[in-house]
Every structure is written in C-alpha cells, then in structure tokens.
Amino acid sequence: MPAAADAGRAEHLAGRKNLVQLVQLRWLAVGGQLLTIVAVHYLLGIELPLGEMLLLLAALSLFNAVCALRARAARQVLDRELFAGLLVDAAVLSGQLYYSGGVSNPFVFLFLLQVVVAVVLLGPRLGWAMALLTGGCFVALTQWHRPLELPGLEPALPPHYVGGLLLCFMLVAALLVLFIGRIGRNLRQRDERLANLRQRAAEEEHIVRIGLLASGAAHELGTPLATLSVILGDWSRMAVFAAEPELREEIDEMQVQLQRCKRIVSGILLAAGEARGEAPVETTLHEFLDDLAAHWLRTRPAPGLRLQRENLPDVDIVSDTALRQMIDNVLDNALEAAPDAEPTLWAECEDDELVLRVQDSGPGFVPEMLARLGKPYQSSKGRPGGGLGLFLAVNVARILGGRLQARNREGGGAEVTIRLPLAALTLQDKDTDEPH
Q1: Domain 281-431, what architecture?
Q2: Would you say the pTM of this structure is higher than 0.70?
C-alpha cells in the first residue's frame, strides 16, 4: 500500500535524523568535557587523572565517528540503536565523574540530559528506563569514586546531603519523564487532529470536484435522456408494440431504468454538494423506510430485501433525496457483493440515534478497504461495490452529524452501520434550519 510505504519511509527518515541529532549533541559534549577538564586542571589547579579522562574522551569520539558514518549509510535506525548510544553516553559520563569526585562533582546533573533526550526521542517507556539507569549510576558514584582534593572540602560528603542529592535527582528525572512525555503526547494528538482536519478538507474539496463533474455530466446527459424518454413514450403508444406484451413489458422496464438514471444523476449532484436541500418531504420514520425499501426493490434487479425494525419509534422526520441516496448506495453495494441473495436492512434506535445496519452475504471487505473506509476510489479489484458509493455515503452521514462504519461478520458477509442523530431528521430540528 502506498500510504503504508510512505509512513514506513517517514519513520526510517526520522530515525536517521534522530541519530544525526545525537551525533551533533555528542560532539558538543566531547568539546565541553575537554574544555572543562583542561580549565579545571590547568586554570583552577585541581589535580585530575588526565590520562584516564582523556582516554574516555577519545573512546567517546571514536564511537561518535562510527555513529556519524552509520547515520550517512543506514537506511533504517531503530529506537534500540539510539537507546544503546545513550547508554554509551551515560557510561562515559559515569567514568568521567568517577575520576572527578563522584556525586560531589556539580556536573553529576548532566545525567538528566540523557533522560530528557531519551524521553523526547524515544518516548516515556525508554525514558523511564534511562531514568532508572542513570539513577543507578548516581547511587554507584556515591560509593565508588576518586575524591577531589579541594581546600575546605571534606573527603566524604555527609550521608544526609548525599541522600538529598539522590532524592533531588530522582525527583527531577521523574518529573522530566512525566511532563515531557505528556507534552509530547499532547503534541502528537494535536498533529493527529490537524492531519485529520487536513484530510477532511481534502475530501471535501474532492466532493466539490465530484459535484462539478456531476454537474457537467447532468448537463450533457439531460438532452439524450429526455430524447430517450420521448422515444420510449412514442413506442409505448405504437400499435406494433402494444400488440406484443413482451415488447411492451421491455419498454416499461426501459422507462423505469431511464427514470432511475435521472435520479442517480440528481442524487450524485446532491450528495457531492449540500446534503440537505432538494425537495424535502415531511413523513414518518416507518413510512420513510417502507417507501425506501419499496422503491429500491422496484428499481433494482434484487431477489428481495429484508426490512427489520427493532425498538424503532415512528417519529415525524424530514426526508430528501440525499438521505435516500445515501441508504440506496449502501444497499446497492450489498446487492453487488451478493447479487443472488437478498440483503437485510435493520433499523433501530440507540441513545437518540437512528441506527441502520445493512448486511449482505458476499465475500466481505478486504482489510485494506476497511482501513481506508470512505476514501474515494477504494473499490477492490475483483469485488464489486465499496467504491465511490461508500465515499459519498460517508460524507453525507458526516454532514448530517452521524457516522458510517463497516465490518466483516463472523458468519460471512459484510455489515455497514449508519448512525444518524434523530435530531438531524426530526421536524422540530428542521423548523429552525436555514435552507441550503
């Protein structure tokens, strides 16, 4: 699938960029540690084991050079690889602190940088792991380290002071993981909402384009459809056809299908633009469903249609072409999926919502279609139905304040569920609406 491939490439690219960021940050750390060691040893006159500390810096530099080559050549960089690099950073920092006073060294709180980087790049789970590991390094440095020989500094820090440092470190580390994790989650949710809004705007723009195409098609098809209607009317009155019952029946069927073509063009125009607009009719919910089922059976070569009601109040509603066309599209898909079996239309009310379930006995939806339900041109090859009709149905339901869902039934076949708020259909709601 192109979308899945694009998502995978984006994830791989993000891993490489994160590795590049770590390499750059590590070079800054190497330079900062080198300047600090030189300044403390030569400018402040504090004796440091230069050989051991510079050896650690050389090892870190070599490791970072390898990481830089890896960032250039790698196609994919996993989170565990980044986490391993952070572990190396923490180990080198622990070694430097071991040779320079342990927790009495004020640079001990550089461990928190490792925690922050882990949370931001790798998420809260690995952030907590890094917090625990650096906390362990902190505890170890309280026991094992080379003390600094500074005037006025006690050879060993008081236990209460060390405990306070440890408590402060763990508290700050925990707060960093919690709040940076939450901030990151909020930002991801915001980005997801923005992506959904952009997707919805793109779909609505697509609907507008469909409306323009349908308008052109309606304009171009109007004349030939009208001509065919006149010709069929003339044929029906000719004696040669009236004397042949079979021919007369075929002419009647052609007229029915011609009227259906006109209604389909009108329905696509309405569904592609405003959902509520053309010739609304005041009726009741039960009457609307009965008329819809009867009309659908008259105009489709279907073996039948099972209309089932359950806990369905007979409230007054406003019906129009878009509402009918939406349900007709779903029923058409069910018929195309299983032409020899009659589909089922279940109607019920749940929590002030009209719930319509259309069930068929076909092969069901392929997983790719379920994942991209309602996207335009998603009809799978070799399986009829499930394309533009469902796309229009999803958007009409959305404009009415409802939603459309689909699933494959355990016993075989598919089920499409339409949920519409009764308030969007009832007369009380329509009295206050402005006409579109």
Answers
A1: 2-Layer Sandwich (3.30)
A2: no
